[in-house]
Amino acid sequence: MALSLSSCDDFLTVESDTGVTSLNYWKNASDLDAANYGLYATFRYNIANNSSVVYRDRGLPFDVLGIWTNPSNNDLSRGWTQTHGCINWNNEYKIVNEANLILDNIDRADLTGEQYNFFRGQALGLRAYVYFYMLQNWGDLPLIVHAEDVGMKARTPWQEVAERCIVDLREAISLLPVADELKDIEGNPITSKQAVSSGTCHAILAHLFAWKAALNKEPDLLKLAILECDSVIADQSYALANTIHEVCASVIPGNSREGILECDFKDTQYDVKGWGAYMAGFCQWWPIVPLTTPSTARRGLLISNSTVYKMFPDPDDQRRNEYFYKLDSMAKVSTVTTKGNAYVQKYQQIIIHESGSQKGQIKSYKANEIIIRLADIILLRAECKARTGDYAGARIDLNRIRNRAGVKDYAGTDADLQDEIQDEREREFFCEGISMRYFDCVRNGTYRERLRGKFKTLTEQDVKDGALFIPVGKMAFFNNTLMLQTPYWKANGYAY
Questions:
Q1: Does 465 lie in the same domain as 363?
Q2: Long-range contacts of 183-189 (CB under 8 A, 24+ apart)
Q3: 161 and 288 share one domain
Q4: Of 344, 367, 390, which residue constitutes the final position of a domain?
Q5: CA 39, CA 96: separation in Å to the nearest integer?
Q6: Alpha-carbon distance 489 to 472, whole Å?
Q7: DSSP 134-190
């Protein structure tokens, strides 16, 4: 049951989906359990099953980008209208609203201490993640922490939103156990990596500190980011898969020991994620998709063999032949067949239609949306260590991920180490996560070197004016005279 009560003003347009009211709800653990279920259903639907989140990515490494071409050039007004879903934050605020309802009403329920801590921790942790994702995209945004906080809203500086996330995540850490000790209200172990644990919150905090350290020029926060990474890496709930084959076979399907935060999908009527909603749905065809051949016309995202070889230069790198189908041999096949492009296969397990007019066709992937996994945190720690001058420590973390892929230790200079860590992140998380490469480029300040089009000529004033964020959609200005547009985008197609 989703409890999306109408408790936000028109500028958010959060609609009521149920007839549940605060007068007859919030009595016991079952009520909170239903609300928590609704929170996560809303999270899955509005984040991992929302095409706007996929289309919002401006950092994809493909050669042919299709619908992503203009966004990847930061030429947004050529593809995104003033009411386009990619610049509308309504879906994210629906999740915030669900979390706020729980946090506002939890004290009314008759709960044990353990139940109270669990439900409050879930709402705090998930709300913090969503706000962090939002500030990465929009920068300043309205900070709403109570469901009944209605009326016109101005944008809160993103730094203040980040500080609220830090406070909430630290509280959630104090409330929640590690992932291996999470239990539901009946005392059963929770194995889904969708549920927030203390480790999840440490991981989000690590990314948040690293982001704020870079964008707000607070290098001291890198030390805090490292400490949060330390907490995650020391957590026995998590472990790296042994091989890249296991990454594709076990980690990508979901709820593995390597997973930290995921959107957990099931093959049920109301919870299946259609294959076309996955990033893989835009770049994987033969041999994964049934009823296709090597010659089947591929649409969407294409990556050339030459780009793959440049990205994965080591011939011993297992990701070459796990993420791509027989890279070397297919590269020798006539370009009449291949068009010179590699065959992506990172998402290898599929669900097919068993009956009806689509029988035999692909229905979905057996895959969660992997938002954070342990390899991510290990490489983030390497990045932060390199930035603080701990090159030896950074090399150890970097080599741990390289070695897992069959690649020898990094033998380059300390001066090139930071770039190599970012290269490794691009290799490891190819076609995975939510805007991972773009956020990496922003955090590392490498957007001019690694991104395309207008990103390459951005001035420092452009960046200060918000060019790396996305514009605020027109819907946020309805009945809200306090709303202001990001200066760069007000001058580049989004003045209302």
A1: no
A2: 183/118, 184/33, 185/29, 185/30, 185/32, 185/33, 185/115, 185/118
A3: no
A4: 367
A5: 9
A6: 8
A7: HHHHHSSB----STT--S--PPBPHHHHHHHHHHHHHHHHHH---GGG-B-TTSPBP
More confident residue, 298 or 3: 298
For β-strands 362-365 and 259-263, DSSP reports them as unpaired
Whether residue 5 is found in the same domain as residue 109: yes
Rounded distance, CA 211 to CA 209, Å?
5
- Helix or strand (DSSP H, E) at 104: helix 90-105
Helix (H) or strand (E) holding 362: strand 362-365
Domain count of the fold of the chain:
2
| Confidence at residue 13, expressed as pLDDT on a 0 to 100 scale | 53
Nearest-Å Rg of the Cα atoms of the chain is 22
Q: Express each pLDDT in 133-145 by its tens digit.
A: 999 999 999 999 9
Same domain for 363 and 462, yes or no, is no
Determine, yes or no, domain membership for 69. Answer: no
Q: Look-up: residue for tokens 């905090």?
A: 205
Q: How far apart are CA 31 and CA 16, in angstroms?
A: 18
Residue 114's Cβ-side half-sphere holds a number of Cα atoms within 13 Å equal to 8
**End-to-end CA gap in the chain:** 37
pLDDT band at 23 (very low <50, low <70, confident <90, very high): low
Average of per-residue pLDDT values in the chain:
95
Q: Are residues 16 and 158 in the same domain?
A: yes
Q: Are residues 333 and 474 in the same domain?
A: no
pTM equals 0.95
User: By residue range, what is the domain housing residue 155?
Assistant: 1-60+82-176+458-496
* CATH code at position 28: 1.25.40.890
Q: Who's near 472: CB < 8 A, 6+ residues apart?
A: 87, 89, 138, 155, 483, 485, 486, 489, 494
Asked if the structure places residue 67 within a domain, the reply is no
